[in-house]
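Attaching the record inline, Q. Sequence:
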Amino acid sequence: MRSRRLAMLISVCLAGACCCVSQALAQSSNETGKLKIHVVPKQSYVWIDGKAIRDGSQTLTLPAGSHQVGAYNYGYLPKTQDVQVIAGQTKALNIDLQASGDPVPGPFGDIELKGHPRAAVLLNGKTPAYFVGHVDEFDWNWIWHQRLLVRPGTYQLTVSRKGDTIWSGPVTVKAGQQVTVYLDHNGKTKTKNWAEGRNMPAQRRFRAGIASATVAVAPVTAQLSAQSNNVACGQATQLNWTSSNAADTSISGIGEVPAQGNRTTSPTQDTTYVLTAKGPGGEVTKSIAVNVNGAPTVAVSLAQPEIHYYKVGDRVIDQGSTMLQWSTTNANSVKVEPGNSSALSGREKVSANPTQTTAGPINQTVTYTVTATNACGGTTTKTAQLHILGSIDPAPSATLASIYFPTAYPTKQNPQAGLVLSEKMALDNLATQFKTFGLYEHNASLLVIGYADVRGSNEYNQALSQRRAALIRNYLVSKGVPADDIKIRAEGKTKQLDQKTVDILDSKNSQQPEKWMTKNAKTTWLAYNRRADLVLEPTGQQSTMYYPVDTPYTKLVWQRPEPSLKKIESAGINSEMTVQQSRLLSPTD
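Structure, as predicted:
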């Protein structure tokens, strides 16, 4: 290369260019350096930057800079290294290869090559790892034997030098045959019997003499196994493999791998892993199937499949609950509905929460669904049904009406007398309603406020109004209302309804006053003030103060004079008697 460049520069100078030989030499030495390579064994082949150069020790002129230098000889461990070539300098490099590999058993066939003696020979690949020798080692088989021994099969033969492919193509060799490839005739082949190859003993991978050489190419072997052939979705298994005499090893779905090793993998579906080991001696594939169980398992149950619910108005009185429990396997995603849980396994309190909002009986089934999925595309759904029984009642309301008393009743001598039948019936109804209201409002209570008309002293009327409130309390207690839920207060004659208020109440009363009431306004005014008012707590609802006109014994309660005890006792007959029956017993006056 250097001499050709020098000749060109001299010719340019002779043509009149402003240059000289000394300048040319200086420029050449600034661009290149020399690499003096010594290899052992001497048949080793040198590769520079991935290109086959030639065999043996040699001195190369290379561009200044970094170069990758490799020495290869079949049956020896190759060596590669990066070398820095310095312009104008010579660098010495000694490469001593180490023998490797066991002898190769037959039977064999022989490949003989003609032409291009310094070219590199590669089997089944085009990288240096597939190098088996050079043509001059395989072009003679008479007196001195130069043989490329291979096991029976078809080989992709590539002959290359300095980056150029001289010839490439398939060559099929059988045991006991010699195939000659004529490189200068486009790979023309000639086959003849070679009986010796059938029974040859195992051969060393490389053997060379003064004019002889034998390369025995070892077949590729491989093994592949799995730690477990059956896994759940997401579960890992370990692939284990070994190969020998391979230049390239790969596993499908994984990629290139070392000649031997292991790899943990988590397949998401049934997968067949294929190990491909390829080398000069052929190509071997091994496969292993790993089956993936893609279906999750789900278990779901309720500790109590039936619970109760009771609601009054807008208040829940009884809301039963139970535990929902679930577990899954082979899943990585879980959804519990209704609800927001995504735990793979767990337990959760669920309460009666019917969709019904209107009053009436409740008989509803709620279905809890647990759906488990995984990365393998598997889905499993299981359900558990919760039965809700109960009812929704309307909010309770108490009909509160003020209670009216005859003049002077109850007396000090007869504190239990004074409630006529109509007032007892009103209190009976209140007792029933209050019990229901107590379920709805746990802090429910009644306040009874007694009053008296203006007649009599303050002291007398205070005591009278106290007896009236106490009589109502005692009666309600007798009907089942807890005494602790009733408070009483006596106002005497201190808070009188005035005549104008009475007139307004009469005008609004749905029960129109009798004529004798309107004609005797003062008596009516007195009657309105002989009463007890009721207040329902904590709502603060107060009793209506309309005088009970259309009720038994209205006139007895209304009249100004104090009735006799006999009439009062007659008017307070058994409260279970109907209003119609009691009217038959009402006094005519």
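The chain has eleven helices and 41 strands. The longest helix spans residues 458-478.

More tomorrow.
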